[in-house]
Amino acid sequence: MYESHQVSIDSSGLIMARPDSFLPNTDIIATDQYIIYMDVPGLTKEEIIVYRQNVVTIIKGIRKRPYNSEKLERSERKYGEFALSFKIPEIYERKWSLFSVENGVLTIIYDKDKDDQIVRQKKE
User: Taking the model in full, what pTM does it have?
Assistant: First the structure.
């Protein structure tokens, strides 16, 4: 196992990985749904672990080199373990409504919390 370095990327989460490891590019959209899109080329849904701790969603996986690297002359692509965490705003449900991986893109969707909307309307 390696020592993981934490690097703050923005207010939505932390990326934890070795500097030379694979780090998936991520887009987040927050509207009526909170949607996380993540590039995970070569990985399947079964190779990715997603779980939630309170308001934080954690995504882990390993991108393995698909060939023997003993006689590798050049390497620009990144491989290795990754772990990303995202703080999901409290106005969204605690459990995602969709988790899929298609064409190398992981998608996680959270719907707005209907109970939270009812409570907010009663306060107003």
Answer: 0.76
